[in-house]
Amino acid sequence: MTQTASIWLVILAALVAANLPFINHRWFIVGPVAAGRKPLPMRLLEMLLLYFLVGGLALLLERRVGQIAPQGWEFYAITATLFLTLGFPGFVYRYLVRRRH
User: Fold this and answer.
1) Which region holds residue 14: left if phi is over 0, alpha if psi is between -120 and 50, else beta?
2) Which of 10, 50, 74, 97 has a 20 to 30 A CA-CA distance from 81?
3) Assign residue 37 a region: left if phi > 0, alpha if psi is -120 to 50, beta otherwise?
4) Cβ atoms 6, 61 nearer than 8 A
5) Is the pTM of the predicted complex or chain greater than 0.85?
6) For the chain, what is the mean pLDDT?
7) Residues paired with 3 in a beta bridge
8) What H or E segment, with its residue span, contains residue 82?
9) How high is the pLDDT of residue 100?
């Protein structure tokens, strides 16, 4: 896999993973279906877990390409806010779009 393909794979995985907690009704993506509504703090906890999973995927792909670059706290602050930004469409869909029943 080329470096460009790896980068796009990580971006696509982050986009899907950031929106998955807002679309999926299961606990921690693969668990049992939540009775009623999942509270927002649980959805955010799922986002945090998925952030680390996508980060692990990125680390694995970076290791395959070559040497892993050392990162400071700034890198993790920026990637976390980017992950939250990528999850905004799912949040809007879940909490702000009015649905007619």
Assistant:
1) alpha
2) 97
3) beta
4) yes
5) yes
6) 90
7) none
8) helix 73-86
9) 63
Axis crossing angle, helix 73-86 with helix 40-65, rounded to the nearest 10: 120
Q: How many CA atoms lie within 13 A of 45 on its CB side?
A: 7
Q: Phi/psi of residue 91, each to 5°?
A: -65, -45
Lowest mean pLDDT among 7-16, 29-38, 41-50, 73-82: 29-38
Quick one: DSSP state of residue 48? H
Distances (CA, A) of 15 to 10, 39, 50: 9, 21, 11
What is the identity of the amino acid at 10? V
Residue positions counted in the chain: 101
Helix axes 73-86, 3-23, angle to 10 degrees: 60
What residues pair up with 26 in beta bridges, in sequence order?
33
Tokens of 20: 């998955």
How do residues 37-78 score in pLDDT, each as one tens digit?
A: 888 999 999 999 999 999 999 999 999 988 888 899 999 999
Angle, nearest 10°, between helix axes 3-23 and 40-65? 170
